[in-house]
Specification:
The complex is a heterodimer of chains A (about 425) and B (about 325). With about 425 residues, chain A is α/β, with parallel strands linked by helices. Helices cover about 40% and strands about 20% of the residues of chain A. Chain A contains 15 helices and 16 strands. In chain A, strands 3-2-4-5-7-6-13 form a seven-stranded mixed β-sheet, sandwiched between helices. In chain A, strands 10-12-11-14-15-16 form a six-stranded mixed β-sheet, with helices on both faces. In chain A, strand 14, helix 12 and strand 15 form a beta-alpha-beta unit. In chain A, helix 3 packs parallel to helix 5. The model of chain A has no long low-confidence stretch (mean pLDDT about 95). Chain B is built from eleven helices and eight strands. Chain B has an eight-stranded mixed β-sheet, sandwiched between helices. Chain B starts with about 50 loop residues before the first helix and ends in a 7-residue tail after the last helix. The chains are: A alpha/beta (about 425), B alpha/beta (about 325). Chains A and B meet through strand 3, helix 3, helix 5 and strand 9 of A and strand 1, strand 2, helix 3 and helix 5 of B.
Chain lengths: ~425, ~325
Amino acid sequence: MLKQCEGSRAVAEAVALCRPEVVCAYPISPQTHIVEALGEMVKAGTLSPCEFINVESEFAAMSVAIGASAAGARSYTATASQGLLFMAEAVFNASGLGLPIVMTVANRAIGAPINIWNDHSDALAMRDAGWIQLFAENNQEALDLHIQAFRLGEELSLPVMVCMDGFILTHAYERVDMPTQEQVDAYLPKYEPRQVLDPAEPVSIGAMVGPEAFMEVRYLAHAKQMEALKLIPAYAAEFCSIFGRDSGGLTHTYRCEDAETIVVAMGSVLGTIKDVVDEMRAQGHKIGALGITLFRPFPLEGVRAGLAGAKRVVVIEKSMAVGLGGILSTNVRMALSGLHMHGYTVIAGLGGRAITKKSLTELFLKAEKDTLEHVTFLDLDWAMVNKQLEREKAHRRCGPVAENLLRDIGVVAARNY
Amino acid sequence: MSYQPIKFYQTGTFTVGNRLLPPEQRSVQAQVKRYNSINSGHRACQGCGEALGARYAIDAAMEATNGRVICANATGCLEVFSTPYPETSWQVPWLHSLFGNTAAVATGIAAALKVKMHKGERRHIRVVAQGGDGGTTDIGFGCLSGMFERNDDVLYICYDNNGYMNTGVQRSSATPPAARTTTTPAAGPEPGNPFGQGKFVPAIAMAHEIPYVATATVADLRDLEAKVRRAMEFHGARYLHILVPCPLGWGTQPNETIKMARLAKETGLFPVFEAEYGEQKSALAIRHPLPVEEYLKPQKRFAHLFAPKLRTEAIARLQALADRNIRKYKLLEGM
């Protein structure tokens, strides 16, 4: 059924169609609307039977989900940014225990300075936590990926994170095709835990493991993740046959045929990138885009195959590895090893900075001439940065960076240095 | 359910001789068919109070619920000594997640069971969460308070051995003043753990006005079992704080564990009482009041109070704490 609704509402309704039995909620922007909507459904009785637990922290949210999942309940929570980092210990634990929890991450920057707007720093900080990580390009995909996430997680007994850009998707009203309960029921079987806490058949879960087996346990976690690379395309195909649309998968290419320059990205920025590709194609530029839906496990072969014909690859990423450069591009470069092509890392849109078609067009034109730096910060205000660097050279105690920069652009008044 | 014949049981001045009682009045531990929830062969130290406390408490919970218990466990001695992979001592369904989240994990289990029961997929099952004092009074305190505030249907048991014994005897917020630990060494002009405001979680639990709060020691088996039984009569959040001496951390002999627990109670340093909905309902009376020295002197962690010089002021302050407990919890009257 076609429906005009907010991204968060679409996700909440998709999650409800998956019949979760325990939903934990802790508020953090821009995730709040999702759990609010689920709370409303549980309270009104339209999502039943389901326990909606208001917890005291994100750490508790993931912990409740761990307990509920181990006791055999389909469990869901959502978070973002600092919340995801606060629950980090439990995030690793959930995958170590092999519990198929589904969690939405409404991607948001990480402080300090505190910033509630979108980038991917939060989810990518959890890249080695052992979760399957899916990134949605638009609200329809966000909705669809949640339904696939429960199926996938429960088949592999692994937790799945569905990442969607905070505000850009969560708070955007878009038309979505909302599946029926019958469709979801046909796609998603009942949760059958691999091992369940049951007095009739007592098991101990979460035992201490020493050096004699820990390596093997970790290897098996890796092997299990790699299975997802086969399962995800199969489940996406099955999804297509039931729901009638292509959604999910590992990666997807856009106008990559004969492309000399291919732009790689994750999430909602792909929409803007595709527009730019269309415009540049119309002017005869051989450019295409590769969207990455599955970030963990990283589809090395898929990415390599998708990029194989290109001369250069530009990775646009909304996160950065401080002291190295890009996170996504590091992964992409691993896929490209031995292919001898130019690779460019572009850090863009941090903390909600707009990524404009104009900037992207200029960037791609430069890339085509191979005049880009290997790491570029898109639309970085160098005057602001240099002023602060000089200040720090001149004054050992020049005060907090964020406040200095804000004062320079006249947002706040502060002491003079 | 497997069981093993009882190998020994305690005797002594204050214990109730089980043999002298009619079978229906004997303690859970005295029954041949006790649940043996945490069975022998685990790797606890000799004389471990926590191993005793856990066995007593979980067996009693099992008996009170006809064996329908799921346990969540915090990281700590209990988890480490009972589940060295690939072995386990637990004869109950048992889950260890992390150090600081046991109360929340138990909440999740309880929530899942509620839904499953509603769907008719599971029978009625009760949830017991357990952790040491580090996992309860410090790192897990936020989750514990959240569980209390929501009144989740969980019995949380804290096995209090007064410190982080699993990591080599460091101070926790349950370590008593003046006690020596590796992070509060017996050095300087005021050796040992500083005197402070104290953090007595049973009182904080009472402030949440949850259905049931009780304290117990491993010295009073029948009292401990009765409290577990009573706790299982309630639904909602319940808290049981059990003093479990640690021979390693306290510097006592393995055969002194029960004696130490009893002295903590008899001196008033550890008040044994129960409360319902935030109000104290009873206290286990001190039978033979003793000065705190009787409790302090045998323990190496308090040795610096007696040698090389007698620290009368510190001892007096500890006596004042005991006296305040006696007044506050009416330990002489027994309520």
